[in-house]
Design a protein that fits this description.
The structure holds two protein chains of two kinds. By secondary structure, chain A is an alpha+beta fold. Chain A has five helices and ten strands, in the order αααββαββββββββα. In chain B, helix 12 runs antiparallel to helix 15 and helix 16 packs antiparallel against helix 17. The chains are: A alpha+beta, B mainly alpha.
Chain lengths: ~270, ~575
C-alpha cells in the first residue's frame, strides 16, 4: 500500500510539474511595458514554489513508503519523539524569509503600476462598462470630456447615447465614443474606468492589465502598449447573464494610424 | 477548578429521552445533533456536486439538453455557479466538520456528558436546517435562483432588475445566509463554552487532542466572522426591499435609474471578505486538527511538535482576520492597503508551512498502518501542499493582476478549501464510523474510493491552474466568444470527463456508508488502537457518553510507542506511569 501511494503521489507531482515546465499553457504573450517585469516575477515565484511543491510531495510519498508498517521484520515500535524545537525554529525562519522576501521583490512593480499617476503626456481614454458592453471615449482636440447625465442614458441606442452624453455641453462636441479601443503604440494610456450598472472588470490578458470598474467610482489607471496588434478585451467580474460575451477589442496601432482614425471619427461627428 | 467542572457536568446532564421525536428529531443529545448536521451536509454535498456536473456538461456541450431540466442557458449556468458555491461553502464545508463531527466528538474527547447548552445546540441545528430549506427553495420560485455568485457582489445582488433570479430568488438566498449565520453564532458560543468549562479532570488545554483545539479555534473564528456577515446580509436585504442605499450608488440598469444613490459597492466586499477569509479557515482548521490526529494514530508516533501545532493554528486564526483585502487587489481599493494585506497573507503561509513540516515529521520514523482514514489523511497533506503552493502567487498583487478572477483561483481554492477539507470529512467518516454506528466500513471499497477521488480531483483542479494562467476568466458559461480561449477547450473537456469519473466514484462512498451501517463487521470499542477518550467508552457511546463513569485524564493525547509501556499506545485515562506532558 505504501508503494502504491508513493507511485500515485509522485506521478501526480511529476505530471503536473511537466505541464508547468513545458509551458504547454502559459501566460499570453506580453505586449505592454509592465509585462516583462510581471512575467519575470511570475517565473521566479514559480521556480521557488515549484521546488517547494516537488520537495514536499516527493518527501510525503517517500515517507509513506519508507516508514510503512513492515510487520514483524522491522523494529518492534515506531520511534518515540515529540518533536524538535530547533528544527521548528529553523523552518519557521526559513519560510518567513522566503515568503516575505518574494513579496518584497515584486513590490516595486506594483508600486510603479499603481502608486504613481499617469505621465503628463498620456492618452486619456474613458472606459465605461455596462451590461454587456465596453465603451471607449476620447476627449478630442479640446482635451476635455463632456458631461454625462444618467437620465439621458439610452442603452439601446448605443454609442454616445448609451453613455448619456450631454450634447449641450460644449466640451462634449468633439468627444469620440467607440466600441473598439484604439491606442497608439509606445505611448502611455491613462484609463478612467467607470461602470454604469454593476461591477465589471476590465481585463486585457496581453497587457497584463486588470482593474474592476465600479459604479460610483472613476478609477484612474495606466499602461503602455509596446507591440502593435489586436488584443482581446474581456470582463473578469461576474456581471450578469451576458458576462461571458462582454468582450471588446484593443487595437494598438502606429501613432500616425491612430491620429488618422481619430480624425476620421471626428469628421463623422460633424 | 475541578469541582466547578464537575458541577457543570451534573447540571447539564439530562435523562435519555424515550419517544422518537425527542430522541431523533428535536434531540438535545450532541451525538444525535452531530449526526443531523452530518446528514444535512451529506445531502447538501450531493446537491452541490450534481450542480457542478451540470456546469461541466454545459461548458463542453452548450446546447445539450439535460433530462428534467432541459437546455442550460447562460443564466442557468450562473445560477448553478452561485448555488454550487453557496451550498458547498455553507452547508457542507462549514456544517460537516464543525457541526457534524465537532458536535459529536468534542464533548466525548474532553470527557463531558454533553455540550454546555444542549437546547441552544438543538436550535442551532434547526435554524441551519431552515436556512438550507430556504436556500433550496430559491430554485423553485419565479425567476429561479440568483446568478450573482456565492460572493454576491452588489449592485448585481442588490438590484432585482440586474438579471434573472435577482428578484425573489436573491431575497431567499440572502435570508438563508442570515439564518445560517444565526445558527453558526449560537453554535460557536456553545463550542467555546464547552471547551473552556466542561473538560474532565486532568484534561488541561495542553492535553486536548488537536481536533479539540481545531474545533475551539474554529468556533472563535465563527463567533467573530458570522456576526459581520449577518449584518452585511441584513443591510443587503434593506437595500433590496426598503430602498436604502448601503451598497448601491447612483446606477442605471438598462438605461433606467434605480432610485439608489450614495452607497458603496466596496463596503459589501470589505464586510463579506472580513467573514469570507476566516471562513476558509473555518472550513479547513477542523480537517487540519483531524489529520494531525490521524497521522499520529496510524504512524504509531506522537505528533511532531504538539505545541507548535497549537500555536500554528492560533496564529492562522489570528492572521486570518487580517488578510481579507487580498480578495480585493483589483477592486479599486487603495493600492497602498494592498501592500499591507499582501505582507499579512504571505505571513500566514508560515504557520501553514510549519504544519506541513510537522506532518512530515510525524510520518518520519513511524510504523505506518494504511487504514482508510490514514489514506485520506495523507491525501489531505498532499492536497494541502498543492493548494497551498498557489497561494503565494495570488497573495502578491503584482501576480494577481493576470491571475485574479481566472480559473487559476478556482483551481487554487478548490484544492485547498474544497477538496482538502472534504478529504478531512472523508477521513473523519472512515475513522469515527465504528464509534458512531458500531460497525466497520468496508476497507476495499474505501481504498477504491480513495484512489479514484485522489487522482480524480487532481485531474479536475490541476488543469484549471493552466487554464487560468492562459487567461481563462472564471464564471464564463462558454469559451466560444473569445479567440484565445478556443485552444483551452480540449483542456476543459478533459476536466469534464475527470469530473464525471470523480463524481461517480462518490457513489462507492455512499454505498459503503449505508451498507456498512446495516451489514458492516462489528466494531470493537477501540478498533484503531487510539488513545483519546472516545475510544475508552462503549460503541456507540451511551446517552451520557461514559455510562455514569466520569473519566480522569493522566496523559497527553499522542502517547504512541512509548518505550517500556506494555502496549504501543497509552490511553489518556491510563495511570500516569509514563507521563510526558
Amino acid at each position: 500500500m505504501g508503494l502504491v501511494l508513493l507511485i500515485v503521489i509522485w506521478l501526480i507531482t511529476f505530471v503536473s510539474t511537466y505541464f508547468f515546465v513545458a509551458k504547454t499553457w502559459w501566460l499570453p504573450t506580453g505586449a505592454s511595458a509592465a509585462a516583462a517585469g510581471i512575467d519575470h516575477h511570475f517565473a521566479t515565484t514559480y521556480l521557488v514554489m515549484g521546488v517547494v511543491f516537488v520537495a514536499a510531495q516527493v518527501a510525503l510519498g517517500f515517507f509513506a513508503w519508507q516508514y510503512r508498517d513492515r510487520g514483524s521484520s522491522s523494529a518492534a515500535r515506531a520511534s518515540y519523539s515529540h518533536g524538535n524545537n530547533m528544527l521548528e525554529s529553523v523552518w519557521t525562519v526559513l519560510t518567513a524569509v522566503l515568503f516575505i522576501g518574494l513579496n518584497l521583490m515584486s513590490s516595486s512593480i506594483w508600486a510603479s503600476e499603481r502608486f504613481r499617476p499617469a505621465e503628463p503626456g498620456a492618452l486619456q481614454v474613458e472606459v465605461t462598462g455596462m451590461q454587456f458592453q465596453w465603451y471607449f471615449r476620447y476627449a478630442g482636440p479640446d482635451g476635455k470630456f463632456g458631461a454625462t447625465r444618467p437620465e439621458l442614458i439610452d442603452a439601446s441606442a448605443g454609442g454616445e447615447s448609451a453613455l448619456g452624453l450631454d450634447t449641450t455641453d460644449p466640451a462634449s462636441k468633439d468627444d469620440v465614443v467607440s466600441g473598439t479601443m484604439y491606442v497608439p503604440v509606445n505611448r502611455e494610456v491613462e484609463l478612467i474606468l467607470r461602470a454604469q450598472d454593476v461591477i465589471h472588470s476590465f481585463f486585457i490578458p496581453n497587457m497584463r492589465f486588470k482593474q474592476d470598474a465600479v459604479p460610483g467610482l472613476a478609477i484612474h489607471m495606466h499602461f503602455t502598449p509596446i507591440t502593435m496588434g489586436n488584443y482581446e478585451v474581456t470582463c473578469a467580474e461576474l456581471c450578469g447573464l451576458g458576462h461571458y460575451k462582454m468582450n471588446g477589442m484593443l487595437k494598438v496601432v502606429s501613432p500616425e494610424e491612430f491620429d488618422k482614425w481619430l480624425a476620421a471619427r471626428e469628421a463623422e461627428k460633424q | 477548578m475541578a469541582t466547578r467542572e464537575f458541577a457543570a457536568h451534573e447540571s447539564h446532564a439530562h435523562a435519555a429521552p424515550q419517544g422518537f421525536i425527542r430522541k431523533w428529531v428535536f434531540s438535545l443529545d450532541h451525538k444525535v445533533i452531530g449526526l443531523q448536521y452530518y446528514f444535512l451536509a451529506l445531502s447538501a454535498v450531493f446537491v452541490g456536486m450534481f450542480l457542478s456536473l451540470l456546469m461541466r456538461i454545459h461548458l463542453i456541450w452548450p446546447t445539450a439538453a439535460v433530462p428534467f431540466i432541459g437546455e442550460i442557458k447562460p443564466e442557468t449556468y450562473l445560477t448553478l455557479v452561485t448555488m454550487h458555491g453557496t451550498i458547498m461553502v455553507f452547508f457542507v464545508l462549514t456544517t460537516a466538520p464543525q457541526g457534524g463531527f465537532g458536535n459529536y466528538f468534542l464533548p466525548i474527547q474532553i470527557g463531558a456528558a454533553d455540550m454546555a447548552f444542549p437546547v441552544l445546540n438543538m436550535l442551532s441545528f434547526w435554524i441551519t436546517f431552515l436556512g438550507y430549506i430556504v436556500m433550496l427553495s430559491a430554485f423553485f420560485v419565479v425567476g429561479g435562483a440568483p446568478l450573482h455568485g456565492w460572493t454576491g457582489y452588489p449592485p448585481l445582488s442588490a438590484l432585482p432588475s440586474a438579471g434573472p433570479g435577482e428578484a425573489l430568488g436573491a431575497d431567499l438566498w440572502v435570508t438563508s445566509i442570515a439564518l445560517f449565520c444565526i445558527g453558526a453564532l449560537m453554535s460557536a458560543l456553545n463550542f467555546i463554552t464547552t471547551t473552556l468549562d466542561m473538560r474532565a479532570k486532568g484534561m488541561s488545554m495542553m492535553r486536548m487532542p488537536l481536533t479539540c483545539w481545531a474545533w475551539f479555534i474554529t468556533a472563535i473564528l465563527g463567533l467573530l466572522a458570522f456576526g459581520v456577515l449577518f449584518s452585511a446580509g441584513i443591510l443587503l436585504l434593506l437595500d433590496r426591499n426598503v430602498g436604502t442605499s448601503f451598497f448601491v450608488p447612483l446606477v442605471t440598469v438598462n438605461g433606467q435609474l434605480t432610485g439608489h444613490k450614495g452607497g458603496s459597492p466596496l463596503l459589501w466586499q470589505h464586510l463579506f471578505w472580513f467573514f469570507g477569509h476566516p471562513e476558509v479557515y473555518i472550513a479547513i482548521l477542523p480537517a487540519m486538527g483531524l489529520c494531525s490526529q490521524l497521522l499520529s494514530v496510524f504512524s504509531r508516533k506522537p505528533i511532531f511538535g504538539y505545541k507548535a501545532m497549537v500555536y500554528a493554528m492560533l496564529s492562522i486564526g489570528l492572521l486570518g482576520f487580517m488578510v481579507w483585502g487580498h480578495h480585493m487587489f483589483m477592486s479599486g481599493m487603495s493600492p497602498y492597503t494592498a501592500f499591507a494585506f499582501s505582507i499579512m497573507t504571505m505571513a500566514i503561509g508560515v504557520p501553514s508551512a510549519i504544519k506541513t513540516f510537522n506532518w512530515l515529521g510525524t510520518l518520519h520514523g513511524g510504523k505506518i498502518r494504511f487504514s482508510s482514514p490514514m489514506l485520506f489523511a495523507i491525501g489531505f497533506v498532499s492536497l494541502f501542499v498543492s493548494g497551498g503552493i498557489s497561494g503565494p502567487f495570488l497573495a502578491q498583487p503584482t501576480l494577481d493582476i493576470p491571475l485574479h478572477d481566472t480559473a487559476f483561483v478556482t483551481g487554487h481554492f478548490h484544492l485547498i478549501m474544497g477538496v482538502a477539507s472534504i478529504f478531512g470529512i472523508f477521513a473523519a467518516t472512515y475513522y469515527w464510523f465504528p464509534k458512531m454506528f458500531g460497525r466497520m466500513m468496508n476497507e476495499s471499497l474505501a481504498r477504491w474510493h480513495f484512489y479514484l477521488t485522489f487522482v480524480g480531483t487532481y485531474c479536475i483542479f490541476m488543469p484549471m491552474h493552466y487554464a487560468g494562467m492562459a487567461g481563462q476568466p472564471r464564471r464564463y458559461s462558454q469559451f466560444t466568444t473569445l479567440h484565445y480561449l478556443e485552444r483551452l477547450i480540449p483542456l476543459n473537456t478533459f476536466i469534464t470527463f475527470a469530473a464525471f469519473v470523480t463524481i461517480s466514484a462518490q457513489l462507492i462512498f455512499l454505498v459503503n456508508l449505508f451498507w456498512s451501517m446495516k451489514a458492516g463487521k462489528k466494531a470493537s470499542d477501540n478498533p484503531w488502537e487510539a488513545t483519546t477518550l472516545e475510544w475508552t467508552t462503549a460503541t456507540p457511546p451511551p446517552h451520557d457518553n461514559f455510562g455514569g463513569v466520569v473519566p480522569e485524564v493522566h496523559n497527553g493525547p499522542y502517547e504512541y510507542s512509548v518505550p517500556g509501556a506494555p502496549r504501543d499506545y497509552v490511553m489518556q485515562t491510563d495511570p500516569a506511569s509514563v507521563s510526558v506532558h
